[in-house]
Structures are given as structure tokens and as C-alpha cells.
């Protein structure tokens, strides 16, 4: 083998990305003032900075939106900027898809499209959008450093100083992750900010990672996604919450956890200070949380249940409350929350005992999906947390509790708990023969059906009928029997018999409320520590400031 | 439920961490100059800043060591500072364990103890060290944000400015992660730096996250851990490398990957520009890497195989080479590498097609461990990457290739490839009846045996005999048969028969070199693109500067 011949094959430049960046930046020198793009020049600047076919990370984030920049991108001339490869964790705003209709963008890698799921499904079918893959958040962040590294990042922050240092306030979220991947591979980072200032309260992203800032015409869009009004919590939610606390949290000694957003988990949060207290569980369970700042967690925090909460993002209205509770929340020297979606997803995947989620459909083996016909909502973060991380090696009581065998080589399991009522709204059974996701996947030509949580990862299912301890099921058949036994009067539920249920109860594979000493008649709204948004404000001593749409006063 | 009664239960302070921090910092005001602790006052400062029982994250990192700070911690008066809870990803230096003998520290949560594994096992048995848990790196980082949040972080950087902004150069590694978890929960962050300077080349960690900097008496310790001298690559490694390229990389279309460190993977890296080229695979496989800057990857980079490499950490001697290849490596505006161990672990777990590792022992079902009797080395990062991430939802050819069933609900698998010679040095069989890890775990009273990679996550095993395609095995029995068929003359290997091997070959569950069109006689050292460190320097055009211990000239 002649090495000199091999090396001589390669007379390439190793700085093509850096040179391209320099060329693009040179083009806007007449438009910009140092690092600042004038607000009214943003469209022109994007047309100069972005090349056709570039990979663009646009901060469509779960909560905050780089809305000024996405509007500007939607106004560029498609003759100049086209065929972009968009990398976005969340498709949230109309222009996130408009740019595909105009030909500005062509290829899309994303995680979540909740607000645009119907249109997304149609546009994929029409071929207007070509989907690379659908990810969980954490997978997408990983790929930013592997094969989806952006040429351009369009992100949002609260404030910038003259050096381009960024302050994000409570909504740090995924901005540092996007910026890091872009900045350190000679991409161009453009941040919209609500204001320019001389001195920042703290620095969330160093100025040496940022190329341009632009003051937006109005503050970035921010949605309150994790606020659940306690008035909508039903007695069924409360019953299920009591069963979960008694039959899962207490039984398995759950210390650390993530709650998906929903009324079932909101019920649990509001039952800890009342029902949980009456069981003597305060200080014994549910101490460390990977969670957005759920307003419904306020009573548990105030009554001393919670040691820590690390947050994926912020929550509108919770800013002052969080800032006043630095023992509990991660806050900066400026006093406000520091969230970090990437590290909170790592924590939620690897560092907590339990994930509690919900779903719209579940098949007889525990596979579930929130995808319904005609809607392609994507995954978000749930599958990342709602799965057993096989790489986990550290143990906890709850994790070890999932071991059922006697082998010398074994490992624990993360608790993946699904809470579902047996029927959805509109009297549709949750338990189905076949998930809609299968057909949606076929229609959209996805390589696999978009299953949110796979049955083999689910350890517990809670319905209003009882709990199925799926981790104890000996095989697929018993898994199905256990689910049928708590599936009520759905078609699957009707397959079960009194004898079968009795045997499963005796083997501890299912439990009914009476097995857990939970009285159905106790499941009253009076058991909730807060029964309205107003109550939550009271609990917070007025620190929680709910957005107008949640106020009744 | 009387809400007012509940709220009144809680008349606590919510700022105890912040107040404690302020008290501790007030105590050192006479010692420090602003944010700077004078070098000769560090022991005194630590005695004032650290409280007995504090949780301390000391940057014993896989590569760089906060060696000045660990020495200083080892000199504090145990009457003043004692019973610390140490959180360290890597136990590398003697004083990392000395502090336990002196009573300065008591409890330890860690990931890796390679260099101190013998002493670690002894000290656990003696009760000198109490182990919380042993983690992979990523799990430990996750827990920093959940239930192992430090009160004190002792970290290392290259340079600081007067505002406490830190520059890490290529060895950013896990420093930002430790600092973020500590700084944003009112912990105290102390960074040793090699120098103070007026202007930093770039900012890796903002000054508003850092409380104190101290100029160390000498630069922090940095080890070259990922350098493998090609002279030590044997023909057996080359044969196995050829089989892996042909029978796995090409067959499954592996685009993105992580290589563990070892001579088998070094052989593959050095075969890509020669053997791989001859197969026409350039530009078709192995394009995106999550990898430390392995010197043995230089020839593949130079001959145009590699699109990108994201790095966990730096590698001594590779600084100038990496800086000259910004199209490939993630580099900053200062031109030098930006590594990030947390995000590279995320990428290595979730965003790549394949992990290739090695091990010292493997049982008949594919469970493996590098733990041997009397040594407790911990996990490092391998189990995180050497496992199938059940939360993955995006697909790739390789991932989809692992699907063997026909069900409508299914998912792909990450390729977890183990490359082992059938015998270790000293003629010990690699394939064993029972892993030493079982006894080590029992002796150290660990809750589970310290298995590095579980058999159910392993998709392929390569020995000098052939490849076992374990993902195709129908059941545990066939898995064992496949391993036996490639286990050579080990006791397990002798259980196999010619008939059984033939049947497994026909079913594609195993392949021998001839099945892959790999000629044993071609497996010569002349096939390596570099056969010495010297050759690697040549390939790099003199940019690679190997440490003295690797030089023969």
C-alpha cells in the first residue's frame, strides 16, 4: 500500500464551511451595524445570508417561537432562497408550513407538530413537504451534532448586549443546544431579541457563539402549554390518581419522576398534599421532578413535598413564583428560572424512577399512540421518557422493584405508567384492535408506524377500573389479559371474565381499587388541594399570575 | 379540605441554598481579590467555602483533571471539611481516593474508575468508601439536575478573564454540564485555570455562572487516552476489521457510528482508506462520527471518507490537526475544537447507527463486562452507547435493517457490535461460563452485577472466527449456538459442531470469512493505511503532534 499515493488523492479545502460563512456575512456588511441587523432589514439580510439548500434550524420550540424570524423567512423571495432543509423541534405556527408551500423550504426533520398536525398530514400526502424523519426532541438534538448540523440557526432570546451575549430568562429551553451545534461548525447564528441592553441580568449564551442579533417588532410568541385548570379535573381523574399514588408511587417508592401534561397527572399533583398526606407519604415519595413549571404542582411545593424541579422550559405566569422558590427550581444569579430542554430530557430519560403519561389509543398489547386518522402530530419528548433506557446502570428502589426474575444477570426497569380512561371523549374506546397510527404511517409512507410508547416498555396501565401491573405479566397473552381486565366495557374489556380477573388479582398482575384500599366514594373534588386556577393563585401567595385565558375573574 | 390550613403548614424559607452560599462566600472575602482566589490561599478558601456533608462535583473527568483543586481538597483539615458526598465522573488520581481515607469525603457517586479500579474495590470492601451508585456518564449528568445537584463544583479550564468567563480550548468535555447544574441551584463554582487573561479566544462558560477562579500552580492534568499505536495492530485485528467492514458496515449501510477505543476499532479506521476503498465504499459508509479525535482516524479523514466528527473530549497531540480541519470537526471562532461530553453521549446514544465496542469477558448469551476479579472499573460511557435506545423513533437504513419480524407494530434497533478475540492475553478465554462481574458485584454488595453490555442489546459479535448476527437469533438457545460457533477453541466454542455451524451459516445467523469473501491471507499489516505513529504524523502533514510516550524518534 503506497501511502503517499493515498494522501495525494486528497487536495481538498478543509475550510469550505468557514469560507462560505465569511462570504455570506460579507454580503450583509452594508445592511448591518456590527452584530446588529436593523429590524426593517431582516428579510433582506436573510436573503443574503441563507443559500438555497441550506440546512436551517428555526426555533419552533415547544413553548417559545422565534416568531419574528419565522415571519421574515416566510417573506423571503423564493427565487433567492429555496429548497431549504428545515430542522425544527416543533411545527407550531402557520408560516412554519407556509414556507414549504412557497418552495422556500423542501425537506423537514422535526419532532412535534401538534398545532399543525392536520395540515402536516395533508402536505406530506401532497408531497409539498418531504419528511426526513420524525424524532423525539432528544434524538433531534443528538443529530444536530451528527448529520443534521445547521448552516443557519434562527433563534429567540429576551435580551442581547452589544457583544451578542444572550439572555433568555426562564425560557432558555433548547436555544443553547441549537446555537452550539450551529456556531461550532461554522454556521451562522441569528437571534431575535425583545431588546438590546447595555448589561444583561445573566448570560445564557456567550456572544462568541452568536453572529447577529435583531430586535423583533414584538416579543417572541410564548404559549402556556402546561397549565391545566383544576376545574376540569373529574372524579374519575381523582379516582385514578388515588390508585396511582397508592398502588404505584407508594408501592414502588417513587422518589423522582416526570409527569406528562394532562388532567390525570394534574389530579395526582393536587392529591399529594391531601390524600398523599393522609397516607403519611410526605417526604417519602415524589421528591425530585423533571417537569415544566406546572401550576398544579404549586400546592405540593408549598406544603413541603418537593425537593427539586428541573424544567424543560418555562411556563407563562409562573415566572415570579419560580423566582421566589430558588430552593426548588434551578434559577440564575438574576433570580429567574434556567430551563434546559436537552438536559431535562436526559434527566427525564435516565435519572428518574418513573414517567407518567397518557394516550388516545392503546392496543391489546399496550402499544399506544396519540396519532389519530388524518393527523400527524409527531412525538415530542414522550417516547424518550416513556421507554426503558437500556443503558441505565445506577439503581433505585423503584428501578430494582421491576425485577421479577431470579437470574444472576438482570437489571431493573424504569417505570413507564400510562393513565387512560377506558373511553375517550365522544364515547370512543381507548382500547382498540388496531392503532390508527398504523394507517397514518402507511398513508404518509413512514418507514414504521408512529407508535408513541411501545407495550414492551410499559410497566403499568391505570384506568378507572384498576391497575394492570404489566411488568409482572409472564408473556404477551397475560399482558393482554391484564389490559382486558381493566378495559371496562370496551370491546377488549368484554373479552375478560370474572374468573380471569380473580386469578389476575390473586397473582398481583392487576389490582382494583378495593385491593388498594381506595374507596371509590372518596374520589371527590373536595379532595383536590386546589379546585380552580384561583385556588392555585392563593396557594402561591399571589405569585402565580395566570394568563388571561385561564382567569375567571 | 381546608386549603388555608394546608398552606399555613409551610412557613419555611425558600432561599436556604442561596443564603448558605452567601454566608460561605462572605467568609472568604478577606482571602480573595474579587472573583480570584490567590493560588497560595486555595486550601484555606476551600476550608471556608465547603461545609461538612456538602455534595461536591470534582472534575475528575475522563481526560482532563482539575488536578490543582483535587490536590488542594486533599490538603484541607478533615476537622473542618469532612463527610463530603463526591460526584465524579472519573476516579483517576490517587487523591480522588485519598480524601476518603482521610475522612474528608464519605459517599461517592461515579462513572469510571479505570486507573484506580483495584484500590476502589478494596476501599469499598473496607467500608472506606460508600458508593451511592455507579453510572454511565450520561446518567450521572442527568442526576446532576435531579437528585445529585452539587453544592460545590471544582472544575478546570484553560483561561479566565476578569469577569470569570472561561475558555476551555479543545477540552470543554463535561465542564459546562457540571457548572450549569451547580450554578443554577445556588451552588458555588470554583474553576482552576492555567492563566488569567484580558481577552479570551472564545467563551465556553459565561462568567455569570462562575463564582471563583484560581490560577493553578501548573496546567491541569490531561491524558492521551484515545491514541492507539498502529504498530500494535495485529493481523488478527485486521482480519476482524475486514469482516466488520464487509459483513456489517457495508451490509447494513452504516452511515454514522461511534467506535470504542481499542486495536480492533483502530484497525477498522486504518482499513477504510485501503480495504474499504477497494470495495468502493468511500462516500457510502462511515460518514458521520461521534468520536474522540482518534489519531488513527486521520488517514480516513485525509482520504475523504469522513464528513463530520463530534467529540466527547479532546486528545493530546491532536489540537493542531483538528484546528486545521474545521469542515470535519466542531471548532470555535478561535479555531480550536469544541467538545461536549454530554451532547456527544446523547449523539452516541440516539443519533448514530452503530456502536462498536470490545470486552474482556462474554458469557454464552452475549452479556459482557470489563470488570475482572478484584477490580471495579465502573461503566464510563459504553453502556449508554452500547444499548438499544428504546426511545428512538427516527429511522435509518441500518436501524430498519435490524427488523426481522413482519408485525405492523415494530421498530428498528441500534447496531451494537462487540469485537473480541476468543482468547485474552495470558491465554484466558473471553467466552466464559459466568462473568467475573457477578462475583465482584456480590463482593462489593452492588444491587446488580456490573454488566457492561447486556446480551439482549448486542446485535453482532465479531471474533477472528467469524460474525454472529445475534439480532437474527430466534431465541436464547440459538443466540448461544451462534456465539459458540464463533468462539473458537474456548470451552464454549467446543460445544459447537460442524453440522450446527453449517446450519447457522445457511440461515445467515453466522458468517465465516469465506462467506463474506474475506481472505484470511489478505489480512496483512501492509493493508493498514498507517503502520506507526510516525505514519499518522505523515498523513497529517505534520499537524498531529503525538505525546513523547508515543514517539519512536
UniProtKB/TrEMBL annotation, chains A, B:
Tell me one GO molecular function of this protein.
transferase activity
SUPFAM superfamilies in alphabetical order:
NagB/RpiA/CoA transferase-like
UniProt protein name:
Malonate decarboxylase subunit alpha
Q: Gene encoding this polypeptide?
A: mdcA
